[in-house]
């Protein structure tokens, strides 16, 4: 707290306040004096705050200061409950409230001046929506917002100019040099005018020279425009040739290629373009931006001398040594996981470099291809210009191209069919060989297994039995099933069903008991659930009622608290006013004349008398001025007429002197002089 007061006192004793306080006198100030000091500091930040707080109500003073502090974004310490104490302390001039505000304001006076200045123009006036329905009000509001945005941009430009590296001394020297050059040019123009005035028809010649200059400027403009149009024509011709070449290549590719190859080529181009757009170009753009930022930083810095360069070199060497030490420490540790990661990182970096190199090579090849296509187009144009060359033209060339295309398509189709047949034949031949080999292997394995088991020839006999059984089944199917087989099957099925029923009878009995028990439990659960829901609804309604009551009581408490603080402030203000009134009565009733002179009533009566005397003198002065106004205006008009008359005589004299002096020979001191 003592450091805070010391800082406040030191800043108040400086310019522009010059209060001449010390710690004791400042600490002994009354609340009204503290409020006046705070108001003076705010007036230094915002000149609109220049007010004598003795002539203002305390509520208005507090409201004005709070609004300005809100604009300056001052945050008082504490929470919302402390805000009421802050307002109360600001009204009564409490030291624990005033001191932090003064300390905060004096710390950043220049910044707050700028903020207060901007607040005059950037705090938007909120217009209600019902007023914005009017067209004039809406247009005015729109114009107001546009002016606000224009002010923002102009202020930013002004700040950039202030912070830029332009030297005012250099600008002043340039301005003075330009002024001198302007004066010299004016003198030269005057001398040339004097020389030209002696020539006959100089006005006509000046007019012709002016027209010549205008025509030359127009000629230069037209020449520049002609050059621009030539450049545009050249670029358009190049663009046309490039588009024609692309069209030819696309037609050729569409005629010769399949949809699969076209899709594959397009996918490759999309991958390449996406790589260039997402990876390569952003990296190059980022590197260029870094270089530009570095160059701008270098340009904005002042010129460096030899000592500065030596210092930078020493810093670079120190940083390099530190980097080498860190690398050595890292190599000394030699952790295996970091070694593996370093290998992966090296591989990734190598792959990325290879990818970038291949992308650059592809870009270069594309550029070479475009240049070669341009050369081919130029060569074709040159060959078309030569005479004697047999070149197919028009319909003949179209028929020739169509024949070639039809033959090439037929050839490609036949060649494709032959290739498909060959591939299919090879595939079937290979599958046949594989199946034969697999069958032989299986037969060999089966024979070895039979020999081990002592049943050699089993597979052969099994095959014979399967063949005989197949023949028998076919015979049985041909005969059909008899009725006896059907009855036996039915008996078997009935016996199986009876066995299953006898096995499931006890399980069904247990299942019935469990179903009954389940129904009882579900009924009991539903009853309990309904009881719980009714109880929860009652408790929820009671809770909501209690919350509403608590909310209402809190609001009443806050209202009563605010009313209490307001009445407390009003009581303190009334006590202060009552104390002032009692002091005034004591001074007015006392018999001492010196104390009576200190009374406010005496001071006001004295001031009223002085103001009345001053008003009387001013009225007398006004009367004298009114009486002398007419003669004075007449005299001033006579002086102006006299001045015009003398100026006219001067012009006539100069004109006469210039006319008589041109072409005259004057003898002076025995010498003859010819004046032109």
Automatic annotation (TrEMBL):
Pfam families tied to this protein: IFT81_CH (PF18383)
The keyword Membrane is annotated on this UniProt entry: no
Alphabetized InterPro entries for the sequence: IFT81, IFT81_CH, IFT81_N_sf
Function: Component of the intraflagellar transport (IFT) complex B: together with IFT74, forms a tubulin-binding module that specifically mediates transport of tubulin within the cilium. Binds tubulin via its CH (calponin-homology)-like region. Required for ciliogenesis. Required for proper regulation of SHH signaling. Plays an important role during spermatogenesis by modulating the assembly and elongation of the sperm flagella.
The IFT81 calponin homology domain, residue ranges: 3-126
Places the protein is found: Cytoplasm, Cytoskeleton, Cilium basal body
Gene Ontology molecular function: any one: tubulin binding
Domain of life: Eukaryota
Protein name: Intraflagellar transport protein 81 homolog
GO CC terms of this entry: ciliary basal body; intraciliary transport particle B
Xref: Gene3D superfamilies: Intraflagellar transport protein 81, N-terminal domain (1.10.418.70)
Residues in coiled coil: 137-246, 309-382, 504-621
Family: Belongs to the IFT81 family.
Main location: cytoplasm
The entry's keywords: Acetylation, Cell projection, Cilium, Cilium biogenesis/degradation, Coiled coil, Cytoplasm, Cytoskeleton, Differentiation, Phosphoprotein, Spermatogenesis
Keyword Phosphoprotein on entry: yes
UniProt organism field: Crocuta crocuta
UniProt GO BP: cell differentiation; cilium assembly; intraciliary transport; spermatogenesis
